[in-house]
Amino acid sequence: MDSKKVRLGIAPIAWTNDDLPELGGENTFEQCVSEMALAGFTGSEVGNKYPKDPAVLKEYLDIRGISICNQWFSSFLASKPYAEVEALFREQLDFLGKMGARVIGPSEQTRSCQGQPLPIFSKKAVFSSEEWKQLTDGMNRLGHVAKEEGFRMAFHHHMGTGVQTIEETERFLNDTNPEYVWLLYDSGHFAFSGEDPVAALRKFIGRVGHVHLKDVRPQTYAEVKKKDLSFLDAVRLGVFTIPGDGSVDFPSIFSILEENDYQGWMVVEAEQDPAKANPFVYAKNARSYIRKHTGL
Questions:
Q1: What is the pLDDT of residues 196-238, one digit of tens each?
Q2: Cα dist. 6→208, 251, 257, 262, 295 in Å?
Q3: Distance between CA atoms of 193 and 170, rounded to whole angstroms?
Q4: Are 106 and 73 in contact (CB under 8 A)?
Q5: Is 222 helix (H, G, I), strand (E, B) or coil?
Q6: pLDDT by residue (tens digit) across 112-122?
Q7: Rounded CA gap, 244 and 268, in Å?
Q8: Helix, strand, coil in percent for the chain, rounding step 5
Q9: 3-state SS class at 15
Q10: List of long-range contacts for 79-86, beta carbons under 8 Å, 24+ apart
């Protein structure tokens, strides 16, 4: 891959989990960003321990050679007034703009069981036709706002939400404007959903605006599915891991991205219990694996 076109980042969720703050509660922000840099990454998404003041955060990151590349945004377009969601969206765009980022990653959280102690497979959100239209119309409007502000809005399909499967993702992309709405492709969430992440990337590559590299441990996944556990329990058990440590075919994923001239960030996002999976060790291993298979 061409390092002028593709940059590598890593998410702080391996050091401190946003949904489960007790996982990595002992790890400091300073330790997290220092270890990211030492492992060889130049980009980061935003974690719950990051300073909220852009000037303060930028100072910490600049001396470590790290840039903010994206931030999660919880949207509730299917259940809240659009104006309320847009106001919060604009606030986040303002913060990201001051950090020099150019991607924002919304995920629709209406009735999501992602952060709830609910079975992830049997209790996932399913939207009515009215909710679906509110979602897609709202995303088109948010995407237009983002584009006007110089951003790429990349929608994050996610376990436990109304846009989880390949079928739901395809419907979502068909019902939104490609001029305003991109896809945040996440290999781990398609794999966890029981889909083929390689086939998903091949199908959606024309809309991919941001990439999360996440692997899945097949034995843990089988246990989670058999017992219909929650997303939180799955993370605690270690269903996710770094590229090359699970069942996802990353060489094929890298090939599809390169063949289609993908330009943007690839971000390792592998939430685990840091007491079981040392985040610095795993970050270094992920970086070595990516270098071996992409040349980056």
A1: 999 999 999 999 999 999 999 999 999 999 999 999 999 999 9
A2: 13, 16, 10, 7, 11
A3: 14
A4: yes
A5: helix
A6: 999 999 999 99
A7: 11
A8: 45, 15, 40
A9: coil
A10: 79/110, 79/111, 79/131, 82/134, 82/138, 82/141, 85/138, 85/142, 86/141, 86/142, 86/145
CA angle 28, 32, 35 (to 5 degrees): 135
CA-based nearest residue to 43, from 58, 19, 65, 22 = 65
Strands (E) across 81-180 are located at 103-108, 152-156
Q: Would you give the DSSP letter of residue 230?
A: B
Residues of the chain below pLDDT 50: none
pTM: 0.98
List the chain domain ranges: 6-294
73 contact partners, CB below 8 Å, separation of at least 6: 88, 89, 92, 104, 105, 106, 107
User: Of 166, 158, 113, 162, which is closest to residue 138 (Cα–Cα)?
Assistant: 162
**Measured distance CA(240)–CA(80) in Å, rounded:** 31
- R_g (Cα) of the chain, nearest Å: 18
Q: What Å distances lie between residue 3 and 10, 272, 294, 295, CA to CA?
A: 16, 28, 10, 9
How far is it, in rounded angstroms, from Cα 214 to Cα 192?
A: 10
The CA–CA distances, whole Å, from 73 to 2, 70, 76, 111, 295 equal 29, 10, 10, 15, 31
Distances (CA, A) of 65 to 47, 115, 200: 17, 32, 33
Q: Which two tokens stand for residue 127?
A: 């939207």
Q: Which of 66, 38, 63 is nearest to 47 (CA)?
A: 66
Q: Which CATH number fits domain 6-294: 1.20.1070.10, 3.20.20.150, 3.50.50.60, 1.20.120.330?
A: 3.20.20.150
